[in-house]
Amino acid sequence: MRMRRKRHLEPRLEACADLLVARGRPMPNLREAAEHYRALLDFSELFGNDNPVELEVGCGNGRFIIGLAKREPAKNYLAVEICSNVILTAMENAKREGIGNVRFLNIPAEILPCYLPERSVETVYLNFSTPLPETSRERQRLTSSRFLSIYRALLKDGGRIVQKTDSEPFFDYSLRKYAENGFEVTELTRDLHASAYAAENIVTEYEQNFIDRGLPIFRAAAVKREE
Question: pLDDT, tens digit, for every residue of 122-172?
Fold first, then answer.
């Protein structure tokens, strides 16, 4: 079902303009944009400091990234979400809580290289990415070789991807793709909430539904190998 457009969407987005650093497609063709359009962010200017930068791809309503930003005030965070309706909620929540170390990009993840410099990010978070069908929509999976090449270019040497998912087939696919695309899996659990990683985990609203039903959450961290 298509999400209903939020009331007064554009004025509400404008009210969050200080948090929204990019929106939409700079060029109609995403591939052409990713290859040729550049409006690279200056993180020092954007955040007013030189703290490390981490990135969440698909931030949803912002519960994870806001929780992380509150817990780690000495780091800066970028949150990407393609849906304007959804990112609005995340930005309004961040604004309401006075979170100063998060900025948002309302763009397709394919064009992250248009805005983020190479080797500038320490961690990429993928929380409950949609496990699209491998047979028909693999290129759109956020752990496909296509996207892993983007993250690899953006990550600093030794940077990592941290993934959580409720889908074991998608998790196994992702593990295989990490190995094929220059990443080494250094952390892995098939039951996050019964593991040593549970203590530091920030529970998303989506994740809580699975906890309440007693279902496992799969988690992995994959480190970028040196070229």
Answer: 999 999 999 999 999 999 999 999 999 999 999 999 999 999 999 999 999
d(CA 3, CA 50): 38
In SS3 terms, 63-91 reads as: HHHHHHHHHCCCCEEEEECCCHHHHHHHH
From the list 109, 112, 81, 110, the residue with the least C-alpha distance to 19 is: 81
Q: 20: which strand partners? A: 104
> In the chain, where are the structural domains located?
25-74+109-224
Pairwise CA distance, residues 105 & 207, whole Å: 23
Give the phi and the psi of residue 84 in degrees, each rounded to 5.
Answer: -65, -40
Q: What is the pLDDT of residue 7?
A: 85
Phi and psi at 136, nearest 5°, equal -110, -20
pTM score, whole prediction? 0.95
Residue found under tokens 């993180």: 43
- CA-based torsion, 113, 117, 123, 125: positive or negative: negative
Looking at the domain 25-74+109-224, which fold is it?
Rossmann fold (3.40.50)
* Integer Cα distance of 95 and 98 in angstroms: 5
According to DSSP, residue 133 is labeled -
